[in-house]
Amino acid sequence: MIKTIQADVLYRPHDNSLRFLPEGPYPYGTDKFSWVAIQCGPTARHGALNVFDWKTKQNTSYELPGRPGFAFATSRDGVFVVGCEREVGLFSIRDRSWTVLATGIDSDREGTVINDSAAWDDNLIFGTKDLEFRTKKAGLYLYRGRDRKVVRLRDDQICSNGKAIIHSSNSGLRLLDIDSPTRKVVAYNVDVESASISEPTVCIDLTSDPAVPDGMILTPDQKSVIVSMYNPNPAAHGETRQYRLSDGALETIWTTPGSPQNTCPQLIRVEGKVYLVITTALEFMPEERRASSPEAGTLFCAPTEWNTTNDSPIFQLQN
């Protein structure tokens, strides 16, 4: 039986620039999480890193030197690894400094920027997106931390979105990946040593769905994925869904009333309880639809029955 759970409003940014395209929530410290405003408005060329304090409901925003696709906390206090425009770098929330780790991403393509990512140890797999959401020219990349090598794994994606890493004693490292316009969740075997991936296999097929799969995480038992669905059509609510990996079955739906464009899910522990946080977006919503979608760009949450979270990535830096 499919469970349906209504999520509640957690945080409604007062500034519409922060409501335009929130994504990528991740635990950060005690009872806090970080998230990124990928773009602060339809014509903005910058975004922001945010830290939300659950207890006080206060959000602190840090303007970034461009449009971020992802941000992960690192092993260095106050420092995040961020994919921003066509660079991967380190951003300090203490002095707002930016240190480049890798540059020239998609340098042979026009009109793409870094988008979503997965992290483990000192490695990243991240994608880019075509800003027009139309052409198969965006890349999928491995950043190998030990030698800071960047390798393009694919060059034919459109909008490289949700990613999750599974460590298996049987099959090694697996990447679950979404190129949103395909409306499919696929899996690759990853060989970090040779910096290569296998041919993809389809895990979940959503090609008949009117909404587009965006951000994705694993459940704590790694048997299912939670996918936020970005619905650009008129709708009374948005949906974030849990699908079983073994057969693609739909298990749970979390609804976000008044906000149909869900972007990313994340499990956050607060005072010993695990909540699902869902970011949503105001991005390019026509003015005539905003009255019927008053919570577009709001962050939602719902209690869960889990007592553990999935592995929250802490990007390892050499001290």
Detailed description of the structure:
- With 319 residues, the protein is mainly beta.
- It has one domain (3-303): 6 Propeller (Neuraminidase).
- 3% of the residues lie in helices and 54% in strands.
- It has two helices and 26 strands.
- The protein has helices spanning 16-19, 287-290; strands at 3-6, 8-11, 22-27, 32-37, 48-53, 58-63, 68-73, 79-84, 87-92, 98-102, 112-120, 123-130, 138-144, 149-157, 160-168, 172-179, 184-191, 196-197, 201-205, 212-218, 224-230, 237-244, 250-257, 262-270, 273-280, 299-303.
- The strands form six sheets. The protein has a five-stranded mixed β-sheet, with no helix packed on it.
- The longest helix is centred in the N-terminal third of the chain and has 4 residues, at 16-19.
- It is globular.
- It starts with a strand and ends in a 16-residue tail after the last strand.
- The mean pLDDT is 96.
Annotation keywords:
Neuraminidase; five-stranded antiparallel sheet; globular
How are the SSEs placed, and which strands pair?
Layout: E1 3-6, E2 8-11, H1 16-19, E3 22-27, E4 32-37, E5 48-53, E6 58-63, E7 68-73, E8 79-84, E9 87-92, E10 98-102, E11 112-120, E12 123-130, E13 138-144, E14 149-157, E15 160-168, E16 172-179, E17 184-191, E18 196-197, E19 201-205, E20 212-218, E21 224-230, E22 237-244, E23 250-257, E24 262-270, E25 273-280, H2 287-290, E26 299-303
Parallel strand pairs: 1-23
Antiparallel strand pairs: 2-26, 3-4, 4-5, 5-6, 7-8, 8-9, 9-10, 11-12, 12-13, 13-14, 15-16, 16-17, 17-18, 17-19, 20-21, 21-22, 22-23, 24-25, 25-26
